[in-house]
Design brief:
alpha/beta, 30% helix, 8-stranded parallel sheet, globular
């Protein structure tokens, strides 16, 4: 299978100034040297369908992939689902995490993802003990992304408390002990040992106001300076109620007062916000990352995406727990959920959906996500002749296609997916081999 090409030709492409025909892409050193519409193909390699920029999966928990299809027999809530997730977290080690994350990231590549933001909090050994390398689990993620052929922003997550109620924060317990550091300073010291590499950048995250006491937030903000900073925000009403009871403020207000919000910050989910919360996020230029397939799978609710965008928040998308790994579906769901909520169609144009789908800047890669000269050479070719896409206007492909319609994925000029097949081979087999042992009786 080819690993690089200097010239590509697409009959259709979605360029920054709109849909175009007969587009020639010239690639040098992993970047677009030229992008020309109305060109002749010459000896360029031909791509099928319509070409889009590479997708940004702005919110991932790689180990949650092992829970897919395991939590639907007894109903329940987010909180009961979490117990199944904890059961998987208790069994992983650096080797098994590498196998699981490699297959999970390869599945993302098949779905057009060229950059993933990994919200990483599975740090330590069972019981909270440290591995010889305190960042062994992070290094497994670095290798997994490299093997799968996608870029990684490791959002190393500060996770210090087991929960929050009116009386304060509860201590970590059980599987949560693997997530925690002694305090924010201890977390920051461990993160400082991580170094970026050509395919990985190091960011930071506050797990939530439930897991990081207010007095620890300034230390996280200081350590994250100059890096992407992400935070789970108001995913559940119970989080809002506990924060109000303890701090007398909403989670968004608490984060704003601690200078967590801002242009380098992404608030993930942002589902249950007050009107004032929405204005805070907009005023500070905070990105809002919606994860529609997870939010509906966990019965979390429909977030105020249109209100957030109207307030001035850039939007991004994530597959979160990977109940579905299809970033096109995440983009489509952004519009479809708004239709269900508002009773109107067309809240988000196809171009707005594409912008949310390619929000690489929120992960620290501002030179990705555009089909133009100078940008990173990421391409996603979506077929226009499948039973789902035949007859579609290429400009509206995000409203009809699925990940199954992706034929070719190129990341930094290198072929990762060709004819719908990942360079690692049978990704379904890799997933099965990584996941099945995690569910065997001890």
């Amino acid at each position: 299978m080819s690993t690089t090409s200097s010239r590509w030709f697409a009959p259709r492409a979605l360029l920054p100034d709109g849909p175009a025909r007969d587009v020639l892409f010239e690639v040098a050193d992993g970047r677009f040297a030229a992008v020309r519409a109305g060109a002749e193909p010459g000896n360029a390699r031909r791509l099928p369908g319509v070409v889009l920029p590479g997708f940004a999966n702005a919110h991932s928990h790689a180990f949650h992939r092992a829970v897919r299809g395991r939590t639907h027999d007894r109903g329940g809530t987010f909180w009961t689902w979490r117990q199944q997730m904890y059961a998987v977290a208790a069994r992983l080690d650096p080797d098994s995490y590498l196998a699981l994350a490699r297959a999970t990231y390869a599945e993302m590549a098949l779905a057009g993802v060229s950059t993933v933001g990994e919200f990483h909090y599975l740090h330590h050994a069972p019981g909270g003990g440290r591995y010889d390398d305190p960042n062994a689990m992070a290094e497994a993620l670095r290798q997994a992304a490299g093997d799968a052929g996608i870029r990684l922003t490791l959002l190393d997550t500060c996770y210090l408390a087991g929960g929050l109620d009116a009386d304060g924060h509860t201590p970590l317990s059980g599987p949560q002990l693997r997530f925690g550091d002694a305090d924010a300073a201890d977390w920051a010291g461990r993160v400082a040992a991580l170094r970026p590499s050509p395919g990985m950048r190091v960011g930071a995250a506050v797990h939530s106001v439930r897991a990081v006491p207010a007095q620890e937030l300034p230390a996280v903000v200081s350590a994250a300076a100059g890096r992407p900073l992400h935070v789970h925000l108001s995913e559940q009403p119970a989080e809002n109620e506990a924060c109000l009871a303890r701090y007398g403020r909403t989670p968004a207000a608490l984060l704003d007062d601690a200078d967590v919000l801002g242009p380098a910050t992404t608030a993930v989910h942002a589902t249950h916000l007050s009107g004032d919360d929405v204005l805070r996020l907009g005023r500070t230029g905070t990105t809002a990352c919606l994860c529609p397939t997870t939010e509906r799978d966990l019965a979390d609710g429909i977030g105020p995406a249109l209100a957030l965008a109207g307030a001035g928040c850039p939007l991004s998308l994530g597959s979160d727990q990977h109940a579905v790994t299809d970033l096109i579906e995440e983009a489509r769901a952004l519009e479809m959920h708004e239709r269900l909520s508002s009773g109107h169609r067309g809240a988000f144009s196809p171009q707005a959906l594409l912008e949310a789908l390619t929000a690489h800047a929120s992960l620290g890669w501002p030179d990705a996500g555009r089909l133009q000269a100078g940008a990173r050479a990421d391409l996603v070719a979506v077929r226009l002749d499948s039973v789902r896409t035949a007859g579609s206007d290429p400009a509206q492909i995000l409203l009809t296609a699925t990940a199954c319609d992706i034929d070719t994925v190129v990341v930094d000029g290198r072929v990762v997916v060709e004819s719908g097949r990942h360079r690692l081979g049978d990704v379904g087999r890799l997933l099965g081999e990584a996941i099945e042992p995690l569910w065997r009786p001890s």
